[in-house]
Amino acid sequence: MSDDTHDKSVAAPAVSKGINRRLALQMAGAAGGSAFLTQLAAAGGAAAQTADDFKALVCVFLYGGNDQSNVIIPHDTTAYARYQLARPTLAIPRDDLLTINPVSYTGPALGLSPHLRGIRGLFGLGKAAVVANVGTLAYPVTRAQYEANSRPLPFQLFSHSDQTGQWQSGLPDKASRTGWLGRIGDMMAPGFNSPNAISIAMSIAGNNAMQTGASTIQYQITPWGPIRIDPINSWGPLWQAPQATENIRSMLLRQNGHMISRGFSAIYNRAVESEQKLSRALESARPLTTVFPNNYLGAQARMVARLISIQQKLGQRRQIYFIAAGGYDFHDNLLTEQGERLTELDGAITALYQATVEMGVAPNVTTFTASDFGRALQHNGRGSDHGWGAHHFVVGGAVRGRRIAGTMPTVDLDTDTDAGQGRLIPTTSVDQYAATLARWFGVPASDLATIMPNLSRFSNQNLGFME
Amino acid sequence: MADEHADVITTGEAETAPAPESKPTRRKRDKLFGGLGVTASAAVLAACGGSDSGGSGGNGINNGYGQGGVEGPVGPVQLPTENESARFLSHATFGPTMAEIRSVQSLGFDAWLNQQFTAPRRDTHFGYVTRGGPLGCSTCDRMYVNAFLESLWQQVAEDADSLRQRIAFTLTELFVVSEVNSPLDGNARALAGYLDMLADRCFGNFRDLLEGVALHPAMGHYLSHLRNEKEDAATGRIPDENFAREVMQLFTIGLWELNIDGTRRKSTLGNDIPTYTQKDISGMARVFTGWSWGGPDDSTNRWYGWPIDEVDTVRWDIPMRPYQRFASTSEKRIIRNVVIPAGTNATDTVRIALDTLFNHRNVGPFIGKQLIQRLVTSNPSPEYVSRVAEKFNNNGSGVRGDMRAVIRAILTDMDATSEASMLSDRGGKIREPIIRFGSWLRAFGAKSATGIYPIWNLEDTVWSIGQNPLRAPSVFNWFRPDYAPQGEIADAGLVAPEFQIAHETTVTGWANFAFSTAFYGHGWDENRIAASYAEELPLADDPPRLVDRVNLLLTGRQLDRESKALIQGAVADFPLDAENGRFVRVALCVAMTMISPQFQMQR
């Protein structure tokens, strides 16, 4: 990232004045304003490269809104009967459930979808936790308050685009130009990564709001690595025309004076620069013996593992990844098709964990899931409709596993967490989920409000699922 | 119909649209699959935008809502220049050809549009995929979903109705159905039938277009309202809300109440005003129950798509039909306090709901602005949106929803045609990859030896362009109309939707694709689609003239001095007497123009 980019971002109006001021301090290296930065400077900043100081966060986003009711299911007979009554055509047979035994949990016995064998194994080993009924909240809200419309609510609940945006921005009641992984990147990259390193935020699943920061610009890579621009790399047909090759490079990198063109040209410049660095580093990466599932999500997870394996070469002590799978919007064919997606998810997450064990960095890498929203418990025949709160998984060597963080809701219609049709009113906010992960990643408690500006609206700022 | 928000509106003006016919009458129709739009007032015009192809949707629905005549504004016409014509065609088609530039120059914008509005379709996509090849094919072995893409690209490359091609494609990005993450995966007939419907109705009335979208079985599958059943207290089943939500959020009115200029209306407290609530969605979900496969009867086999007397009941070329016993007959409350009374039959229920949506004052600015964004500029001024929305509300003859008037308003607006709009630092947009490829195809008349267009996998981000027709990742298309890349564009409060799919991988993919395509064509062997550059090869020894021709065809002569110098320098650097020297010079000129900022962006 060039200094030029930094300057522009600092000068630009940011989400809030607080962020802007803090960034300005960080960019200027004004350590006096932050004990955090002073500590970093004392530790030698980015120059000190020690393996145990490395951390990576991996977001697996499930686009479409994963149906949480068929991910974690009551196994207790009475509770299962209520589940089955609410969605008779969608119920997974009780005998098929993979039972789990969470510690410090007193509710009705639970099981996982039969498609989550790997995650169930990691849960039992204490390497995976569940965060129950988490979702977008402007403030904590009860059913009575929701029905009376007496508390501010997230904008446009149940809409894919809006709720995806809010999960990723962490700001459900105002427009935001940054996402919470991006804000974490803004805060951590200057102190932990080499100034010449590629972006702290790498996406293998396209542009996303979550990794967008004020200064953090996400770098996009394919599951097979970065792609080379052929016509400027000794392209066959032009070997007789070296000047042509030079002119092609100039053309790719230039812009026409319009801001859209400047933005486009910036992408080309990053593409050319980063491709060379990354390709070289990946060529020297040690091959992994861990086998990843042979599907697109598996390939994304494999690239994450490969990039983790070269973090030192890349000059990165902090990495933030975004991978994703689509197709979770099961208004139809839920029972037959959600399982295929969950199998992919299970395979990718499990293989990624195994690879971190193989590389000796299991406690340094935390993988977590996110999705547009949960879904209604009540069925529409062959599927379920858009909901709100949902359950998510956190996996890694630093996870306080075999636990259910947050509050597991009663699986039934017309409960005190029912916003109608069994759409869950979240009892844990995205703010709390994100803050717990950010804290582990190294964000000081005093700076959490920069990452999640609404965090103080929620009493518990650490859900306790991380070491 | 009362405006429920009247008490909180602080800005905006009264609706100009005629109220929908409230009496649930049903006019007798000449064919089985007539439309539901029956408020006859305007003269009955030619069916469905002048198409006489007999394709799906073009099956003789009397267009009660009316459309514009073919006449444009009258008065002295100043004919456009070569450059203005090329720019206009970059908005109105998949890209200019030299012949079409000449045509616009001699006719002027309005007369060219009039000609295009009545240009017939040569073939249907459904015809291509059912035959297994182009019209008159001798070996008809084109199969799978590839046949649909071949048909699409053949029409884009060759057919005379080039405006229809662009508008129909644009509508696939507003009313999205997709093969990806979808029950339509691999289904050539479904996609062909759907695109035919859009092509047949795109020059008619928006009300008929909306009905075509709502009742097409491809949409019924994609958003799961085909075979959606009424509520059932015994099993706790409620109707599927998928289409009910998206028909409002994405296809008609959007999430927020709008002024005619596309800006959001505010409540007295200064807040944005949602257009609907979850209760409205529940009501609308019950509206779209009891519809399944089209056909002459409502037998149970047909409902499920099972064969009847060994005849396939799965018909992708006709609209869905009602099956009353599966349709909810309870009272339905939808937006704007409209109540559809208990006992209303399925057809009248959908008609009332579509009329209500169609007459919502958001539709003009909501749809109009997105059409401008797809065709002309990412950031239209509120005045531009207003001018288009006013034409939607009233084409000048009291007709609401006249697509011809809307398209004409968008393409001939001063913000699309004036030099000032071209030079504006807020105008223009990223040319989306599919249109960039189409521009090359058309500008140089690229074709294969067999005449087939096997263009199947444009969406690969590594080897291709990261975008493919009717294969968007979700109903939210490849990009959202409000996407703003971080940095100075977002800082300025502007958007650049196509940036959502622009990143290190896809820009690299484009550069590689542009060079391999310009040099080697697309595809392999006898089906390789290549440009002969017959008109350009004679200019290979005159780089300035070569660059000028390519510049006109691809950018409407928008290359700046530096871009021209870089291309001319590169072309001159390649020895003319080398093997294929002429060809390499031309291909290099084309490829470099395709990676120039003036082509990747359109102004």
CATH hierarchy class name of chain A: Alpha Beta
Which sequence of strands runs across the widest sheet of chain B? 1-2
Total domain count of chain A: 1
Strand content of chain A: 5-15%
- What proportion strand of chain B? under 5%
Assembly of the depicted chains: heterodimer
Low-confidence stretches of chain B: 1-34, 37-63
User: From the helix content, strand content and strand pairing of chain A, which structural class follows?
Assistant: alpha/beta
pLDDT averaged over residues of chain B: 90
Main sheet makeup of chain B: 2 strands, antiparallel
Q: Number of DSSP helices of chain B?
A: 25
| CATH topology name of chain A | Alkaline Phosphatase, subunit A
Shape assignment of chain A: globular
Describe the main β-sheet of chain A briefly.
9 strands, mixed
Rounded Rg of chain B: 24 Å
What gap, in angstroms, lies between the N and C termini of chain B? 42 Å
Along the chain, the helix and strand elements of chain A come as HHHEEHEEHEHHHEEHHHEHEEEEEEHH
CATH architecture of chain A: 3-Layer(aba) Sandwich
Describe this structure in words.
The complex is a heterodimer of chains A (467) and B (603). With 467 residues, chain A is of the alpha/beta class. Chain A contains 14 helices and 14 strands. In chain A, the strands form three sheets. In chain A, strands 1, 5, 6, 7, 8, 9, 12, 13 and 14 form a nine-stranded mixed sheet that branches. A three-stranded antiparallel sheet of chain A has the order 2-4-3. A two-stranded antiparallel sheet of chain A has the order 10-11. In chain A, a hairpin with a 4-residue loop joins strand 10 (375-379) and strand 11. In chain A, helix 1 (3-11) packs antiparallel against helix 2 (17-28). The longest helix of chain A is centred in the middle third of the chain and has 25 residues, at 259-283. Residues 1-50 of chain A have low confidence and may be disordered. Chain B is mainly α and 603 residues long. Chain B has a domain at 429-444 and 456-602. Helices cover 42% and strands 2% of the residues of chain B. Chain B contains 25 helices and six strands. In chain B, helix 1 packs across helix 22 (543-555). The longest helix of chain B has 17 residues, at 504-520. Chain B starts with 81 loop residues before the first helix and ends with a strand. In chain B, 61% of the residues are buried. The model of chain B is unreliable at 1-34 and 37-63 (pLDDT under 50). Chains A and B meet through helix 7, strand 7, helix 9 and helix 10 of A and helix 10, helix 11, strand 5, helix 20 and helix 21 of B.
